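hey m, so remember when u said the tokens were messed up on ur end? i reran from scratch. heres the input so u can diff it against urs
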Amino acid sequence: MHDPKQSLKILLAEDEVTIAVTLGDALVDRGWQVVPAKDTGEALAQLDAQNFDLVVTDIRMPGEGGMAVLRHAVAQDADRPVLLITGYATVDQAVEAMSLGAAWYVQKPFRNDAVVRLIERFAAGRAASSENRRLRAKLAELGAIEGMVGASPAMAKVFARIRQVAPTDATVLIQGESGTGKERVARALHDLSPRREAPFVAISCAALAESLLEAELFGHEKGAFTDAHREKRGRFELADGGTLFLDDIDDMPRPTQVKLLRVLQERNFERVGGEKTRAIDIRVIAATKVSLRDEVKAGRFREDLFYRIHVVPVDLPPLRERAGDVPLLARALIERHAPLLGRKASELSLPRAGLGALERYSWPGNVRELENSIQRAIALAPPSGELDIEHLVPLDGRWRGATAVHDTVLPLREALREHEAMHIQRALELTGGHRSQTAELLGISRKVLWEKIRDLGLGAADEADAEAEGRP
């Protein structure tokens, strides 16, 4: 059954009957609607009369030719791709076609299945864009926060808590494992608050030694210590009027905890080495990666400071407890990082065999690990644009074990598909990626192996893709 989201209406302008019939049949067999045109005039009339998702046109045909069809199609919709077919390719002609907005340039003779794959890439990209729009609309309905992604009930509670407490000056404690996005929550609280025009200042309490942390927080006077060659304002002063975010507050040394407690109580402080008391107007947001209650019981965190900062808690769930958000996060991260890595997000797609793996992998590094995986997959993505599953999740016990973590039973067809993908990937690794040896090892033909690699999203397409693209 064809994916309805990939349904296309295609104008096929071709006067050569053999090509028009065979290519048209191949496109129809894929589940797409094809409207034929046997000359330029008919093609232009069809463009004016109907809406098409994609145009395929021969350059040489009765009338003004395919270049006129290209210009007309692009003038109507610059985002609609046009595929040009020619039997008389020249470099000048290819350059002109691309400058006018042609998406692909195919030289006769060509393989129909290779052209179909080119169009499938467009269909996949269009489906991804449509899905992104749908998901963004769903997020808006759920009250999602800009810059944060999630449609799970757990994240809906987080969004609601942020919107509820952001307009106040209440101290917030964000609790969540490393990599869950605690600083994003802190920034959202600031951006939605009356202090949004004032500074948002962040500091990690785990990154500095005790003496340096105090100097960073409170600032210091000139000569306060050996390297204090000039006075320096601390984070409290820099955040005056705005928000101070204390990340990893569970790593704050106890002596510094005492000084922080006084600042929170009195709303004033002195710089290191100074005597002048300075008043401040700030909102404090803290974050912890462990249970502060347990830290209090263990004597590592002051109980009075705990109650001072634990006014409004925001609990961020780990990614393994919101597995349904993973595909949504993955698409958002593709859109964010593709331009930074020199790729177009619309040309990148997640492997068909990989979505289930993304959801079942346990993601011990949470959103940060997913983000790193997406960046790696984009950087190593083939020209086809399909991200490789082995660059997204580890194809080892951690992946297989993730199913047990979620206590999930897959449909048999999907379970067999994923097992087959892992088995073929392992065989490819053993042969160093040699297709013929892999096929022999698996006891199948090279053609069957190629089809499985393509269908399971395990690798780039073969030389037929380059032939179909017809790059001069």
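this time it looks ok to me. The chain has three domains: 4-126, 153-316, 321-469. if urs says something different then somethings off w ur setup not the seq
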